[in-house]
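Quick log. Single chain, no ligands specified.
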Amino acid sequence: MLKIENLHASYGGSLVLHGVNLSIQPGEIQALMGRNGMGKTTLMRTIMGLLSSRSGTITFDGQPIQNLRTHEIAAKGLGYVPQGREIFGDFTVWENLHLGTLKLPRNQRKVPEEVFDYFPILKERKNQKAGSFSGGQQQMLAIARALVTRPKMLLLDEPSEGIQPSIVDQISEILKKINAQTGLTILIVEQNVDMVLETATRCAFMEKGRIVETCSMEDIRKDESIITCHIAV
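-> predicted structure:
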């Protein structure tokens, strides 16, 4: 589904990614973990065309995408929920969701009903301004907005950041439900160990701009020190 080979990329004039290799299979929920400043967000932004790569390849669904613009990458079937959510607080829930459909051809710009099935609170409050929502509700809205185009793969950057544990658990369950029902492939950058253990099927670890280890969740559940040795400060 997504294959990254020997990827080098910079941020702010400094080389951050030093030959990243990562392969994600269709239907997986892949977590990406690592200490702060290791290049995880830079990798996500490079995949989405928000940052340019210096060298290496990014292949999605068998096609190279590293030289495409962000809207072209989205049109190929990649959805993205950035760190910080980036919803529009002065817009209603409905208006935020409709913005996600603008990537679609005009005759397909409709919010799918299943989005509201996954996030019923958004239907209940669709005319409410998003800025009045809690952080967890805003994160649900950001995920829903990424889903309105029915992507083949969803990228989420730190979805648990600043959210109370009960809402993190809800989001984990929703992501697993979507994956089970639709086969949506998911890549999650996350520091929350409990969320990774609950949600992911596989986990890769990043250090100093490289992927240094990839493990199945079965192996990690048997020995959680695999995670702590990669993310402990």
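The mean pLDDT is 91.
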